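Note to self: user wants both folds in one dump. Writing first protein now.
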Amino acid sequence: MKFDIARQPLVPAFLTLAALAVVAMWNAGGPAVSMAVQAGHAAGTVDIGRNAAGALAVSSPGELLAQFQAAHPVWARWIAGLLMLFTGMSVGRLTVRYNLYSVGTCLAIPLYGAIACGLAVGGDCLTTFAASALLALATKNFCRSYCNGFGFDAIFRASLYIGLLPLVATAAAPLLILLPLAVMLFRRTLREVAVAVAGLLLPALTLCYVNWAAGGEFLAQVAEPGSAFIAGTPLSLFLSTPVQNLVLPGAVFLLDLTALLFFLSDIYALGTKPRLIFIFNISALLLTAAALCGPAATPATVALAAVPSAVLLPFMFVRIHRAIALPLYLLFSSKHSTNGSICHFVPKCAIAYGRLKSFNCIFENEQQ
């Protein structure tokens, strides 16, 4: 029996994702929740000051999520876990539906869970996984819009999700560039572009209208995130983060670069639609890296890279030898099952890999 982790069926992939979600939400308690509560109280104090000034009369979606997590941390963890399951299954369904890897595999599902758990280091887990779910939904609907006829419904939904993304996470504003990129890649008509622009502006205009109806300034809900996005210094996230916390994001981006090289070597062996979907996700990954370099980036923003990485990395896993793919997969999967650094769980991965190889050898001898 040959155990190939790269060609993973649906049931083990879903069970791995569910286990990672449970462990991640369990570890989200304690000090992280206390920090989130303090951040929620601080945000509420800032909101009171803004309301007194008369500019902002309602809270933004990101502030509402932070306040909900501060008031109900247990419910927030449950919702964040469900959002993680939903996002992982959406990413996996996208890869299987369009046959991106030329083999039947659901590897993107557990890879999303492993990368998201490892990169989501902030206390605001609800905002983190809500933003990841919006990015996954936008990616899915942009891919759906690439069809022979008109794709008004799909491109409107995708633009709506992209328009909501900066209102949930201010640092994700560079991802708005995905709309013109998708229009050019998927060759949409001018009528579809008009519908997409309407979907992109609808969340911001609705929030501005509600804020104006409540007594605030009309453009305050757009001006305030814009000021927060440009305030501060670039690369502040990397300068303020300890070096040991940058090991896993650096390893993920290094593997993404390796998968990109595999994609470029086989780019003409793919169909037109899978090729354009990969180019779109590579662009989303680059825009996420640009968002991380911005002044408004937070530790939770790093988890946005899990969606394009989960689509791109299986392209590498299905093309490398299983003796290399299995330890890499175990390395990612065991990141959140230990509290130490990588040096603590590398030996555990090696032991697990050795036991699995021994089991395979015994099974093959019994078959012979």
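First done. Writing the second protein, which came from a different request thread.
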Amino acid sequence: MIRPEFIKSSFLFTLGGALPMMGSIVLLPFYTNYLSTTHYTQLLFYISISLFCQLFFSWSTETAFGIEYSRIQNDAQASPKFIGQIAVFMISMAVLWLTIFNVFGNYLFKILFDIKLDMHYWPWGFYAVVTALCNAFFKTATTLLIYKNKSKVFFSLQALNFVITLSIALIGIFMFPDRLEGPLYARLISGLVLLGIALVIFKSNGTFGWDFKAWYSFFKLCGPLVGIVMSSWILGQVDRFFLQHHVTLSELNAYDLILKCFFGIEFIQNSLTAIIYPRVFKLWNTKNTNATDAESNRYFNVFTALNVLLIISFNLALPLLITWVVKDPLFYSGFKYLGLLSSVFVIRSIMYYFQAGLL
């Protein structure tokens, strides 16, 4: 039976996990109303690059962390050592990938983007990469809070991130209208704050130490998971890199606006699975199995029901909300994609069910 304590902590974890995406969605009307067509397109690509780089900086440690930590969390010696090794692994990966991106960034930007977009690695692309590094550390650190069931701390930190990002972005948008300074500096500054918080979480819960065997083990363990996450980024982001050459920027922006609204649903789905998976893994470890049964299926049944209800409500509310807050009617052309995208996100709930067994 699902206990009231689980429902309460799940609510805080879900709401806290959704806050960063909620912040992005709250800022969308300001981006659409105060940025030119070209600057909106530039911003969407800088954010996409940041999400791409975050895959390499995190190297799926937030997923692998839960798999291993659920086995050793009651071991007073093994768990702090493991947490410290994860932190050192991420620091080493940060140095490696930051060097690679800085060396090849300019070259990659020339290949990826149409010259008319005027996209540059320095400084905005570099800021996007640093933001990705910070967010990767914070995501793994907050995963630790989930497994330690520190729902109030988790929610408080996510709320802090929400307030900082929103405040700086809005101040920047009104101080520098139709420029990238506001949105990108907001992401960078809030990211640096989150990086400091993440390192404090790792330091207070783990014992730092270098172990090459552990590093190599993490690298191999997380490799296949990186492939899974990379496929999600490809499915969700890469289409716009092709569309920039075949549609107008206004059409591209309208499509991107609708997709970003759906990413709010995706983030809620990911937050719910981040809550469900620890319970399911713990249940399976207790029974010494990784096969679903009636008890573990209860969690996924609730998840599926919430997912369907959420998407139905979303489809009813979104067109009304966008026409209310977005002034430019060119963005309304994205409504025709609602039904198709909704079906994709309903099907995703099945994917999470099978993914739990594979992990």
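Dump finished. Worth passing along: The CA atoms of residues 20 and 162 lie 6 Å apart.
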